[in-house]
Every structure is written in structure tokens, then in C-alpha cells.
Specification:
heterodimer, A: 449 residues, alpha/beta, D-Maltodextrin-Binding Protein, domain 2, 2 domains, five-stranded mixed β-sheet, four-stranded mixed β-sheet, 47% helix, 12% strand, globular, B: 317 residues, mainly alpha, MetI-like fold, Bact_solute-bd_prot1 (chain A)
Chain lengths: 449, 317
């Protein structure tokens, strides 16, 4: 085919195809790059992406609660907001993925116990006085809640959004049937009541055994009563202390030796499972955060069918133990540093922490307003809310605000999840097993920081 | 070859231009570039990450992560530590899982393909029905299994305990020892239709005169399967087994959706294990090192398998 090469027309065709080919190649090459260049945030630079944590009975319910409020925000400011509600099992991983890729939301919710851990990534906008003053300054927020916004001595990278505290929920009818007249005040009374309440299909207590966050919170609360410091002065984990072993074992023993928890609870990984059991009268007590109220309402339980009391405190306290029955729980709101609409993002934070929105949202979620001026609403003066307020103000302690905190939750919380599974499948779980699991959790920590 | 005059000749010349190697490569370039971008670049990034101390302090700006040398590999391979020991344990569990799933899927697929070889009225319907698990979106299919296998509200225990009264003890299927059985069964259920599809296609390529000849020689159905079907399917099976093995070994969706965030110890498959150990401590360097080790292991295994089967094939020839 020698002759073919000399033809002018042929060369032309060849050239043309080459050009087309090259253009196609260039376009195809650049397409994914262009996609990478878009740093999320809605694309047009005006629309905000908002990641909300799951506060209500379901992700869908959350959307129904939040969307009208965000529409209000759009009306007031002209800024559109794209809402995504994310369940707790995924939230931390999604935030980490967004941090590493830069493909994140503009504004997002975080569990307030993660504040210092996420602050350490440097991905969030610090709230200096220029950002805090338009919100009313630090003093407008409740003290304990504002203390859980980042490591001490650094500008916070989040501000409080919803306040939460743990309480003991008890089923009034089941209590009356068992002849128990008042909620237990210490753990001896608690286990005794639990045993009375456990019969047939009914159990004394329901727990979310496969949830690392729930497990970790209880490790902290029981740990405080046993005098545990999770981290030493230098921020190193101390999970192998005998006190923590006893604390974790006390919580596991509700299922293992006291047998007041249904072994099936070891499978439970969403809040609606244990809270649903409680609502259906299959369990008589819950150790839960104040937002259980909205899940109970969705499950068809009326507020007068259950009571709320502070979580029991050991009496007498073990040596070194502290009278703590909740951590300073809550949800904070943060802004991603690389947002392309920083002013809009801060505007949304201002809107969410405004007195009016604080009242609407916290009422809907059964949580506590984090700004003092929102408490004028009589909805926050009920006896139930007063109990949670009292706990938050007097017997709640903040989880350590250190970068490794979130890893305490994942390592120790997951270790407890595995221990629950062992208990449920009939394997012995005593002090040596708990100590070994915590030892492993501590080793895993060693590779993180 | 002589040049022929006329229109045909011109067309041929244009065709010749098409066949020039430069243009061919140019047209391949987009696909090649995408392949690089989608597969090789992330892999290279993963290898790079495995040599870094990529923790929470650096995930926003990876390039600032300090050099870790071989430290991540040492941690992953130190079987005396909790991390190394659990990685090794996970590897054994995954090997057992992959072998059982491949064997189960292949056997089911083979038997079903064999039974549906003979023409019968409901053949088309059955073939379609058998492919359903493969056609369903993985998430929807596996989450349904999660509901079926729950202890108190699951269908399986309802069937075993309340309907059939086989046992009084409600068993845990998503916890403890049975969780391994559960994940193997669900995975076989998901993968066998693929084996069925491939084996069926392979069987249809076996000429019927081979069976006729075997029948004339007095071979029964059993002998026909052993002497005709299986040897003729050999090339198909070699690829099928390899592909199934690699898929199940790397399977992330089935265990992750079946167990959620709470993977039981007994069903701690390696892909989920690596994912979780990265996210539990936010140490992505260590997670990457584990991934690279997994990659090397599978590469070694695949090469060994291909060499072995190639040698056998040569010997057979």
C-alpha cells in the first residue's frame, strides 16, 4: 500500500481524524479533572450544602422538620440551602472523607464530643471574635455547651446547636405493675428494679449494644463514677486502668450477670430499636439522651406514659469516683474552611442559633436550647426539660477535649460492642476479658495519634 | 500489492490511512488515560499513602504527612501485636470465606446449568428466575437478608422457632459463630447465578455429537458429565473460579451491608477489616499499608494459580 501514503486527500483525512482524535482525547482527559475542580459546596458558589445529623426519629422526619426552616432562611437571605441528613453510624466517616477530599458541605453538624478531634484536622473555620460577635458572643451560649466546642486555648471550630443530656426514662405502667413507686437513685436500686421488671417478654432495660457511640458514652459516665481519667495529663490514653475495666463491666453486666437486658440488644445498632422496645412496653427503662423524647413520640408513646429522672449515681461512690451521670452532650455546627460562600455559611449558623430557630428546632427534637435567651419559651419550663437542664448544669462532665477523643469512642465503643456480642452468644465475659478488650483498644489508639 | 485505479482504490487508500499505528494509539489514548485515572492513579496514591504517617492531623493536606518509611508495614505485619494478629486472623477468615463461596457458587451453578440443559417448557422462566439474585442491586438484596436474619424480628427465626418448632432457642445469625455461616450463605446466594450463567454458556458450546458419540460408546449420564462436560468446560471453569475467588475475596458490600457498622469477630472479612481499622483510628497510612499487602497477596495467589493451570494445560496437551 505504498501509493496510499502519497495521496494528498488521504493525508487530509488522516490529519482531520488526528485532530478529532486529539480533541476527543483532550476533552475526555479534562472532563474528570474539571469534575475534580468543583469543590462541592453546591457549585454556583451561592447555594450552601448543609449536612444535618440525625436528631429525630428518622432521617425523613429530620428532613420534614428542617426543610421548612431552611426555606425560611432562603426567603430571608436569598441563599439556597441543599439539605442532607446523615445517620450517626456514617456521620464521622463522611466528615473524614469530606476533609480528606475537600469535597465537603459548607455547613455541617458534628457530635460535640468530636470537636477537638475534628479541630485537629484543620478543616474547619475557627470562630474568632469576628465570627462569634455576630452570633452574640460566647456569653450568649450555655457555659457547659460552649466548653465542648474545641480544645482549650484555641479558638473553637464549632458553636453549640442542640443541647443534650442523659437521663433515666422509665415506663410508668410497667413500674406500677411491678410495684415500684419511684425511679431508682443508685445502681443497687436500679438493678433490683430491673430484676423486678424483667419477666416473660419484658426486660428491665434496653440498650443499643452495637452502637459504638452509645457504648462509649456509657463507658465515660460509668468511668467517671469509678474515678477514671481516660487520658493522662499529656493526652495519652489510659484505657487499661482497673477502674475503667470495672466501669465497662458494670454496664455489660446488666446483660451478662444481672440479666435485665434482652441479649438481642447486642444486635441493636439504631436508636429506634431500643427506644421502640421501651415504647412497646418490652423494656421498662432506658438510659438515653433527652432527644429520645421525639423518637418516643414517633413510636406513639405519650409524654405522660413515661417519666424522666437523673441517671443513678453509685452510693457510696467508689474511691475517686465523681457524681457524674451524663456527659455534656450535644450537637455543634461547624463551617468548612474551604467553603466558597463563607459569608452565607456564617449567616446560616447565625440563623440556626437565633432565639426563634433555637426554640422551634429544640422543641421539635426534644433537645435543649444552647442559648440563654431561648429559654423564655414556656415549652422549656416543663418538669422533664428541667431535669435535663439540671443534669447538664450540675452533674454532667465534658468528655476530654483532646484530639484523640473520637478515637476513644471508636476503639472503646467497638470493643464494648464485641463484648456485648460475646455475652449475648453465651461466652463468659469477666474482668480478664474486659481488660483484654480494653488493652486491644489502647493498642489501636497507639497507632493513631 | 499493485495499486488499482478507480474509486475502489481511493477508498482502500483512505482505509490504509486508518490503519496507521499512530492514529490507533491516539484513539486509544482517551480510554488509556481514563484507565490510568480510575485505576492506576488511585492505586499509586494508595501505595504512596502507605509510606506516610497519614493521621487526623494531616488528612486535610496529605502532602504534609511525615514520611513513615516501613513503619506502617511493620505494624501491620507484627503478628504479636493486637493489630497484626487481628489482620492475620481476618486473612484466614477471608480465605475460608472465599473458598466456601467459590465452591458453593460453582456447585450450585453447575448443577442448575446441567438440569436446565435439557429442553423443557419452563426452561426460560427458570433461567430468568435463577438470575434474579444477580440482577438485584446488591444493597437492596443484602439489607433484606439483614432483616431476615435478625434474632427477635427476623423471618428465619420466626420460621424455625414459631412455625416449624424445630428449636426453642432463638439463634443469633448476625452475631457470634453463626454470623460466618450467614455471610457465606448470603454471598453464595448472590454469586451463584453468575457461575450458572457462565457455565450455561459454556455448556451450550459443547457440540452435541460428542454426547452422541459417548452414548454410542455406552457412557451413562454420570460418565458423560465426567468425561465430556467437565473436560470441555475446563477453560471456562479456570477463568470462572479465578474471577469468583477474586470477587469474593475482595467482597466489601455483602459483609458491610449485612452487618452494618458492627462486623462480628467471626465474620471479620479483610476488606471491611481494613476499612474499619483505617476509620477507627483515622490512621489512613496504616490502612493503606494493609491494602498494599492485600494487593501483593492476591497478585501472588493469582500468578501462582495461572502458572499452575497453564502448566497443567500444557501437560494435558
Amino acid at each position: 500500500m505504498l501509493a496510499g501514503r502519497s495521496g494528498n486527500g488521504v493525508l487530509g483525512v488522516d490529519m482531520r481524524f488526528r485532530k478529532v482524535g486529539a480533541t476527543a482525547a483532550a476533552v475526555l482527559l479534562l472532563l474528570p479533572l474539571a469534575a475534580c475542580g468543583d469543590d462541592g459546596g453546591g457549585g454556583d458558589g451561592k447555594t450552601l450544602t448543609y449536612w444535618a445529623s440525625n436528631q429525630g426519629p428518622s432521617l425523613d422526619e429530620d428532613r420534614k422538620i428542617l426543610q421548612p426552616e431552611l426555606d425560611k432562611f432562603t426567603q430571608q437571605t436569598g441563599i439556597k440551602v441543599e439539605l442532607e441528613v446523615i445517620g450517626w453510624p456514617d456521620l464521622l466517616n463522611r466528615i473524614l472523607a469530606a476533609t480528606s477530599s475537600g469535597q465537603g458541605p459548607d455547613v455541617l453538624n458534628i457530635g460535640n464530643t468530636w470537636s477537638a478531634s475534628l479541630q485537629a484536622t484543620g478543616a474547619f473555620l475557627p470562630f474568632e471574635s469576628a465570627e462569634l460577635d455576630p452570633l452574640g458572643g460566647p456569653t450568649r451560649f450555655l457555659g457547659p455547651s460552649f466548653a465542648a466546642t474545641g480544645a482549650a486555648g484555641q479558638p473553637p471550630t464549632s458553636v453549640p446547636l442542640y443541647g443534650l443530656a442523659y437521663g433515666l426514662f422509665y415506663h410508668k405502667r410497667l413500674f406500677a405493675e411491678a410495684g415500684i413507686t419511684s425511679p431508682p437513685k443508685n445502681w443497687t436500686e436500679f438493678v433490683a428494679a430491673g430484676k423486678k421488671l424483667t419477666r416473660g417478654d419484658q426486660w428491665g432495660l434496653a440498650v443499643e449494644g452495637a452502637s459504638y457511640t452509645e457504648n462509649a458514652h456509657h463507658a465515660f459516665i460509668f468511668g467517671q463514677q469509678h474515678g477514671v481519667d481516660l487520658f493522662d495529663g499529656a493526652g495519652k490514653p489510659q484505657f487499661t486502668s482497673q477502674h475503667l475495666v470495672l466501669a465497662v463491666k458494670q454496664y455489660l453486666d446488666f446483660m451478662a450477670t444481672d440479666k435485665i437486658v434482652n441479649p438481642s440488644n447486642a444486635e441493636y445498632s439504631t436508636p429506634t430499636q431500643p427506644i421502640g422496645d421501651f415504647a412497646k412496653g418490652k423494656a421498662a427503662m432506658l438510659l438515653w439522651q433527652s432527644n429520645a423524647v421525639s423518637v418516643l413520640a414517633a413510636a406513639g408513646m405519650k409524654p405522660d406514659e413515661y417519666g424522666v429522672a437523673p441517671i443513678p449515681i453509685a452510693d457510696p461512690l467508689p474511691p475517686g469516683g465523681k457524681p457524674v451521670n451524663s456527659h455534656v452532650a450535644g450537637i455543634n455546627v461547624s463551617v468548612f474552611k474551604n467553603t466558597d460562600n463563607r459569608a452565607g455559611a456564617l449567616e446560616l449558623v447565625k440563623f440556626l442559633t437565633s432565639s426563634a430557630e433555637q426554640q422551634i428546632l429544640n422543641k421539635a427534637y426534644g433537645s435543649l436550647p444552647v442559648v440563654k435567651d431561648a429559654y423564655s419559651d414556656p415549652a422549656f419550663q416543663t418538669p422533664q426539660i428541667k431535669i435535663f437542664q439540671e443534669v447538664l448544669a450540675t452533674t454532667a462532665a465534658p468528655l476530654p477535649q483532646v484530639p484523640e477523643e473520637s478515637q476513644f469512642e471508636t476503639t472503646v465503643g467497638s470493643a464494648m460492642r464485641d463484648l456485648f456480642a460475646k455475652v449475648a452468644s453465651g461466652q463468659p465475659v469477666g474482668e480478664p476479658e474486659v481488660a483484654a478488650a480494653l488493652e486491644k483498644a489502647q493498642q489501636e489508639m497507639g497507632t493513631g495519634g | 500489492m499493485a495499486d488499482r485505479p478507480g474509486a475502489t482504490g481511493a477508498a482502500r487508500r483512505a482505509g490504509a490511512g486508518w490503519r496507521r499505528p499512530g492514529l490507533a494509539y491516539l484513539l486509544l489514548l482517551p480510554a488509556l488515560a481514563l484507565e490510568l485515572l480510575v485505576h492506576l492513579v488511585p492505586m499509586a496514591v494508595g501505595v504512596w499513602m502507605s509510606f506516610r504517617e497519614l493521621t487526623q492531623f494531616f488528612i486535610r493536606n496529605w502532602s504534609a504527612a511525615p514520611w513513615a518509611g516501613l513503619r506502617n508495614y511493620r505494624v501491620a505485619l507484627d503478628v504479636d501485636s493486637a493489630i497484626g494478629a487481628s489482620l492475620l486472623r481476618s486473612l484466614w477468615i477471608t480465605l475460608a470465606y472465599a473458598l466456601l463461596v467459590v465452591a458453593g457458587s460453582w456447585l450450585l451453578g453447575f448443577v442448575a446449568a446441567l438440569l436446565l440443559q435439557r429442553p423443557m417448557r419452563s426452561r426460560g422462566l427458570l433461567r430468568t428466575l435463577f438470575l434474579v439474585p444477580y440482577a438485584l442491586p446488591a444493597y437492596a438484596a443484602v439489607i433484606a437478608w439483614n432483616f431476615l436474619l435478625q434474632r427477635d424480628n427476623g423471618m428465619l427465626n420466626h420460621l424455625l422457632v414459631d412455625n416449624l418448632h424445630l428449636t426453642d432457642d432463638r439463634a443469633f445469625w448476625l452475631l457470634g459463630d453463626r454470623s460466618f455461616v450467614a455471610v457465606v450463605l448470603v454471598s453464595v446466594w448472590r454469586h451463584w447465578p453468575f457461575a450458572f450463567l457462565i457455565i450455561m454458556a459454556g455448556m451450550q458450546n459443547i457440540p452435541t455429537d460428542l454426547y452422541e458419540a459417548a452414548a454410542i460408546d455406552g457412557a451413562g449420564p454420570g460418565q458423560q458429565i465426567r468425561r465430556v462436560t467437565l473436560p470441555m468446560l475446563r477453560p471456562v471453569n479456570l477463568v470462572l473460579v479465578l474471577v469468583l475467588f477474586l470477587w469474593t475475596f475482595n467482597d466489601f458490600t455483602t459483609p458491610f451491608v449485612l452487618f452494618g457498622a458492627a462486623t462480628p469477630d467471626q465474620a471479620d472479612l479483610i476488606s471491611v477489616h481494613i476499612y474499619q481499622s483505617s476509620f477507627v483510628t483515622w490512621n489512613f497510612g496504616l490502612g493503606s499499608a494493609m491494602s498494599v499487602l492485600l494487593l501483593l497477596f492476591l497478585l501472588l495467589l493469582t500468578t501462582g494459580y495461572l502458572l499452575l493451570t497453564a502448566r497443567r494445560r500444557r501437560r494435558a496437551v
